[in-house]
Amino acid sequence: MLYIIGLGLNEQGISKEGLLAINKCTKIYLEGYTVDFPYDIRELKLGKKKPVLLKREDVESNKLLNEARGRKIALLVYGCPLFATTHMSLILDAQKQKVKIKIIYSASIFDAIAETGLQLYKFGKVLSMPKNQESDFFQYARENQSIKAHSLILVDIGMDFKNALEKLENAVKKADIKLDKILVCSKMGNKDKEIYYGSVDELREKEIKSPFCFIIPSELHFLEKEGIERFG
Q1: CATH 3.40.1010.10 fits 2-107, yes or no
Q2: Contact call for residues 108 and 217 (beta carbons, < 8 A)
Q3: What is the pLDDT of residues 205-223, one digit of tens each?
Q4: Domain boundaries along the sequence of the chain
Q5: Structure pTM?
Q6: Residue bearing the bigger pLDDT, 87 or 185
């Protein structure tokens, strides 16, 4: 049996169901390559169990499925366990190889951004800003704007705020889109979380810690407008 367990957004975010599953496991692993953890992973509240940190190739190989054939093991994932496509591939491989699997959910960044005041059902396609490759990641923002939907931009791990903001600026100019004010959300779900709402020039003066994301608001309901202006 392989458990894929969401850790939520802080070191105490794992659910009671997740902790009970961990207690049944002979070994637990931690996936650490899809996110910059907003806390020291040694502070995770997992009882007496200590997770083994995995690399991408470990998760994408048959390592976990082979181990899960004869015993119970767990893969711990920051936030929601199915936010990254890698983990859905793991589920499909488990089904093909007849390995039992159980998903245990927890909060994700998509839950936390509701704190901005923007209504979640008004978000469009989620964008990913890559660190290295030059790709037109901004195409979905154009589509979202065309249907008056908000755009959530997830920033790749290892990118500092100044570089990410510059990349966003360049993408906006290339797409010939008028950008007014945007939101930046940092370390959501943690005690030192930060939310700012302002122009690119105003945000450039901020010192934002990782992990962070951008939100480009579209047409605002009056309650949304009142909500996000708290962070101006």
Answers
A1: yes
A2: no
A3: 999 999 999 999 999 999 9
A4: 2-107, 110-231
A5: 0.91
A6: 185
